[in-house]
Task: inverse folding
């Protein structure tokens, strides 16, 4: 730590020719009774040469130093004069009071004796330093630039002396760390304490500032900090020679035990808040809490991607199945934290088939679950007597929509291509499910075909090519991979990874970031900032009790997005809209959904 000292003007009085006939006159002017011949006369004044008042003269203190160990107090005259020997010496003057003044002048053997030398007193400098003690106490390695506080430094400072000493518990000084008499220079303090020779114990580091001219025995400023020195450490500590203290062991050679920090999770899908903790005498990095990027699934210590999605359930990369939302009736709206209910299911075997609320394991066993109503809705496994025995039973029980099972490109063998053929001279999509199964299908060429009541209202069935009961949807910018037609909202997933929707938007099922209750033309699904949702590889949906759709998208990087009805909490922590009664029900936007795995379901029952 450095600060500039104010320059001190030093008047050196040199000789001139003596005029002996003036000595008596000078004595009268200075009110000095004794002869002044061969004496150097000094007259002290206020700044600007203004004469001192009688009160100031009464307070004037003058010291004459002719040798290092010879200091003489001089009694000034009524005119604030002193007569000094014609020899080398140092004169210091001071007036105490509300407005103190000081002066300093050096003499030599050639100082004139036939004149009165005027010395203008000046306001004295002020220096106040202090120590800022850290909360945990002072450590040897602390930089003084951060510890020493300059409270005040102004005026002439050349008379000050700064000390930094160490005292033991018996108040005995055991070491002087620093001492400095200030001159017209920059004060440089030591950057580190040298405590290598101190024994273990508790000490006090004290900084003192003395006024070297006025009173050397009483410090004008003084402060201190506690200091603890250790050489032998506990099992969970290490000795640090640079601080002469014991410090907690480190996590990853960066963070000490007890420190907390934030960093990206391993797969960089979110950030974690960590603490360096002592576990079994070792410093271990411990995750306290973490946040995930929107769309990833939060597990206990990471952010998981989804590999499959079916309705409001997702199969995660670690093999767990996660579901969210509730199924409460419209006349019993849940609280916000209820409709965000989530749970996770953990299996000991690999999942080979995955559907909405059902899985088939590698051994062929089927496990399904349902939402149990009550004060707190929760997912539980179906009793064995009610669980489907095979995957065909899962489809028959409605856990997998047969229309979606045939139209989705699935990794579990559910692929199905609808071929445009001619039957009795009429173009049809074969096989043709009933309209109750799926209102829109995709043929082998990627063209979308819908029932007449599912077409965008901007185009009429009569103006579209018919294939049996289906009509071709016009205006798609590229071929489609599959479609979703749940409720009265319809979507097509394009091969480029974007989704286009149309139809009823009363519950936000179109995901177009628009307030239109019905979207009559193909519209890209966008987020709340109007950005087109891209990189989608799967669409799926659910339907609430009012036949309004909630649509889900699974992206190539394993994120889940949702838009539409939130009547059953199917948006998880998405942003809901309101119905006419002010109830939070839906979102008109493609809102990223992050399902927190805050509960694991009990082990599946034996089959």
Result:
């Amino acid at each position: 730590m450095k600060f500039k000292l104010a320059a001190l003007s030093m008047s050196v009085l040199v000789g001139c020719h003596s005029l002996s006939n003036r000595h008596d006159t000078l004595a009268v002017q200075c009110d000095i009774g004794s002869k002044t011949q061969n004496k150097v006369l000094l007259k002290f004044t206020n700044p600007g040469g203004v004469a001192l008042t009688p009160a100031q003269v009464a307070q004037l203190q003058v010291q004459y130093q002719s040798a290092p160990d010879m200091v003489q107090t001089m009694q000034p005259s009524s005119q604030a004069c002193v007569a000094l020997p014609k020899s080398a010496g140092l004169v210091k003057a001071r007036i105490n009071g509300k407005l103190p003044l000081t002066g300093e002048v050096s003499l030599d053997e050639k100082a004139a004796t036939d004149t009165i030398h005027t010395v203008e007193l000046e306001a004295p400098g002020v220096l106040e330093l202090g120590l800022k003690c850290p909360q945990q106490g002072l450590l040897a390695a602390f930089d003084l630039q951060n510890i020493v506080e300059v409270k005040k430094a102004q005026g002439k400072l050349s008379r000050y002396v700064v000390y930094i000493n160490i005292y033991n518990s018996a108040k005995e000084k055991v070491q002087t760390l620093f001492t400095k008499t200030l001159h017209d220079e920059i004060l440089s303090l030591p950057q580190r304490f040298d405590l290598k020779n101190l024994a273990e114990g508790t000490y006090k580091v004290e900084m003192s500032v003395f006024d070297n001219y006025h009173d050397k025995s009483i410090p004008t400023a003084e402060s201190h900090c506690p200091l603890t020195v250790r050489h032998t450490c506990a099992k969970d500590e290490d000795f640090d020679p640079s601080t002469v203290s014991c410090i907690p062991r480190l996590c990853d050679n960066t963070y000490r035990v007890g420190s907390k920090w934030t960093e990206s999770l391993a797969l960089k899908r979110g950030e974690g808040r960590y603490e360096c903790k002592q576990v079994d005498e070792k410093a271990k990095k411990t995750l306290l809490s973490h946040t995930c990027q929107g769309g990833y699934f939060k597990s206990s210590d990471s952010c998981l991607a989804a590999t499959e999605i079916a309705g409001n359930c997702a199969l995660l990369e670690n093999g767990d199945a996660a579901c969210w939302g509730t199924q409460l009736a419209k006349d019993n709206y849940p609280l916000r934290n209820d409709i965000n209910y989530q749970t996770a299911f953990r299996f000991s075997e690999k999942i080979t088939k995955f559907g909405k609320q059902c899985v088939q394991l590698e051994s062929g066993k089927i496990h399904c679950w349902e939402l149990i109503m009550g004060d707190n809705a929760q997912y539980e496994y179906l009793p064995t007597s009610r669980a489907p025995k095979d995957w065909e039973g899962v489809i028959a029980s409605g856990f997998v929509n047969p229309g979606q099972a045939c139209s989705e490109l699935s990794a579990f063998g559910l692929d199905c291509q609808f071929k445009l053929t001619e039957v009795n001279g009429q173009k049809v999509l074969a096989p043709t499910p009933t309209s109750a199964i799926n209102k829109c299908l995709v043929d082998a060429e990627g063209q979308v075909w819908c029932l007449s009541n599912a077409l965008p209202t901007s185009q009429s069935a009569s103006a579209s090519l018919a294939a049996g009961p289906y009509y071709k949807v016009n205006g798609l910018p590229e071929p489609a991979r599959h479609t979703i037609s749940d409720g009265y909202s319809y979507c097509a997933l394009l091969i480029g990874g974007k989704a286009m929707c149309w139809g009823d938007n009363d519950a936000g099922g179109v995901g177009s970031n628009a307030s239109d209750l019905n979207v009559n033309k193909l519209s890209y699904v966008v987020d709340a900032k109007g950005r087109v949702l891209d990189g989608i590889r799967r669409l799926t949906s659910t339907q609430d009790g009012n036949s309004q759709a909630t649509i889900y998208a699974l992206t190539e990087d394993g994120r889940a997005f949702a838009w539409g009805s939130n009547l059953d909490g199917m948006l998880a922590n998405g942003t809901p809209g309101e119905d006419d009664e002010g109830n939070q029900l839906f979102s008109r936007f493609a809102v990223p959904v992050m399902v927190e795995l805050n509960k694991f379901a009990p082990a599946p029952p034996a089959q």
